[in-house]
Each structure stands twice: as structure tokens, then as C-alpha cells.
Amino acid sequence: MRRAKNWLPSLLFLLPSIIAVGIFVYGLIFKNVSTSLQRSTDFITDKVINPGGIANYTKLLADDRYQHALWNLLVLTVAFV
């Protein structure tokens, strides 16, 4: 019980920051992934702009420029970390 009393003030002090990070970082990451998986159509012509689903990611990973950028990211990460 004494240990819990020692942690309680610290936890109450950090709780607003933990909640803010949860909402504004992880919540928005989830929202972005959710949005990227949705199908988009043009409002006027009803033409499909974005097919949605996993097709977005398979198309992205098949792109040579994106693969080159990922390779550069990997090399720089290994070099500087």
C-alpha cells in the first residue's frame, strides 16, 4: 500500500500528458490509417479517386521511387543510429 501512495501523486501529475499524447498522437495515427483505407469518390462526377483498402498500400509498395526512398531511409537509419 505504501508503494502505491508513492506513485499516486506522480501518476496524477503525468495523467494529463498521457491522455494528451494518447489523443493527439495515437488517436490521430489511427485516424490517418482509417482514412487511408476508405474509398474516395469525386462529389460531382462520382468517379473513384482513391480505391481504398489495401490496394493503396500495394500500389505504394510497388512504386520504384518509394522503394528507393525506403532503402535510403534504412541506410541513413543504420548509419546514424
Question: Would you kindly provide a written description of the structure presented here, covering whatever features stand out?
Answer:
With 81 residues, this protein is mainly alpha-helical. It has one domain (2-80). The protein is built from three helices and two strands; from the N terminus they run H-E-E-H-H. The protein has helices at residues 2-36, 55-62, 64-80, and strands spanning 40-41, 48-50. It has a two-stranded antiparallel ribbon. It starts with a helix and ends with a helix. The model has no long low-confidence stretch (mean pLDDT 88).
Please outline the helices and strands.
Layout: H1 2-36, E1 40-41, E2 48-50, H2 55-62, H3 64-80
Antiparallel strand pairs: 1-2
